Amino acid sequence: METLKISSKENIINSYGLRPTLPYDIEGVLVEKNGKDIVVEKTIENKQIQYSLRLKEEIIENIGEIVEIPKENIVSVKAEEKKVEESESKPEDRNNVRRAEDIIRELGLEFTEENIRLIEFLLRNGLPITKDRVNSYIKSREYLEKIIDNLDPNSFVKLMERGIDIDEENLQKIAEALEEINNEKSFSLRRLLRLERDLSYKEAEEIAKKIYGQKMGKDVYDTIIALHKAKLPISKENINKTIEIMSKVHNLKDLKDEAYIKIIQEEKVFSIDNLYKVNNSYSSKGIDINFNAKNFETFTILQDTSIDSLREMLMELSIEVNTENINILRAFIVNDMVMDRANYEKIISMKNTVKELISLLDEEEIASLSKKGVNTLEEDIYRLVEEIKKEDNLEEVALSNHRKIEEIRKDLSILGKIRDEDLLLLIKNNEDFTIKSIKEIISTKMYKASNLEEKTL
User: Fold this and answer.
1) Are strands 37-44 and 66-69 parallel, antiparallel or unpaired?
2) CA–CA gap between residue 394 and residue 364 (Å, rounded)
3) Full residue range of the structural domain in which residue 72 is found
4) Are 220 and 239 in contact (CB under 8 A)?
5) Is 263:420 a contact under the CB 8 Å cutoff?
6) Residue 49: inside a domain, yes or no?
7) Would 14 be classed as within a structural domain?
8) How many domains are contained in the chain?
9) Is position 68 within any domain?
10) pLDDT tens sequence across 380-409
C-alpha cells in the first residue's frame, strides 16, 4: 500500500475540503472533547444548540468549562438543536415532574414553569421542600434582579457614602438601599444656582489620563463623574472598585434559577461575591465521549507536540500552563526555535507593548509623530510607545502593572458564566456569599482544574 505523505497543514485542508468558512467565534459549555474534535453547547432563545467542531489546534480547557473558540481555530462545524423527546427522558425525570406538580398544589404556589423547575431541582438534590424555602428563593432572585436593574456608577457611589460594603453585604440590604436611593429627590441649591456642576467628559478624560497614564473607556469617565458628584476621592482604587462591581452585576444576568437554591441550601449570605465564587468553582465530571460517523481522520502535523508534551515543556520552564502560553510554545516549535525563559519573556513583553500601542495610537498621535520626523510604520515599537507617552506627558506605566490589570479584567469577566451547580458547591463548602469569597474561589478552581487535567489527559 502506497504511503500518503502529508507535507503541511495546507495540504490537509485542501485535500479534505476543510477550509474554514465560519465568520464568527463560538462560545459555550464544552461537553465533549477528543483531541481536536469537540462539542460545545449553548442556549439560544431557550433552545439548546450543540456545535460539533473540528479544530486546527487542541484546547486545554476541561469538559464543563466555558470556552470561546476563535473562528480562526475552527476547521469545520456542524450545528444542531439538542432535543430530548418525552419517550427518551429518564423515568426518574418524568416522576420528578409529576411530583413537582403535586408539591406545587400542596404548597399553594403559583403553577408556573419556573416553580416546576425549582421543585424539580430540590427533588434531584434531595433538599427539604417547604413553602418558606421556595419563598426565600423567589425573594433572593427578586433582590438580585433589583440590583442588576438599579446599580449604576451614581448609585454605587451613594452606597459607598452610606458605608455599605457591596463586596460583603447581604444582597437584601443592597437592594433595599438602592430602592431608597432611587426614591430620593436630590436637591442642591448650589447645583440649582449653577455654583456646583458635574464634570464634563473632557475633564473626566484628563483625570483618567493622570490616574492610568492612558486613555480609558466610557465606564471610567462615568465613574469619575459620579465620584466627583458625591465628593468622594477620585482614585484608581475607587474607580476600579466601581467598574469591577458593575461588570460582575451585569454578567449576573445570565444566572440560572438553580443557582439561588445552592445559596439557600446552607443558608449562606446572598451576595454578589458568593455567586461569583460558586460560578468559578464547579467541578467537572467525566463525560463519556462518543464521536461517531466522523468524516475525517485525526492528523498529527508535528511530532511529539501533544497537549501533554507541551504542558511538560512549560512546567520545566516554570511557565504557567494556559492557552496563550501553549500557543506561544507551538509557534516556537513550528518556527524551529528554542523557547527558553528569556525568549518567552521577550515575546510576552512584545505582545503587551503592542496592546499598549493600540490603546495609545490615534490620528492625532500619528500627526504629532510625523511632525517630529518619526516614521510610525518603521520605528521600533518600544521607542514609539515611549515617544507617544512623552508627547502626551503621560506617566510611564510599568509593563508588569499593565499585565496585572489585564489579568484582573480577565478574572472579572468570568462572573457572567456562573453555573447553577457552582452555587451548590459554595453552600456545601460553607463559604460566605460575597464578592471577596468569589475571587478566592477563582484561584482554587483554576488550581483544581489544572490538577484534574494532568491526571485525565
Assistant:
1) unpaired
2) 15
3) 9-83
4) yes
5) no
6) yes
7) yes
8) 1
9) yes
10) 666 767 877 776 543 443 344 444 444 544
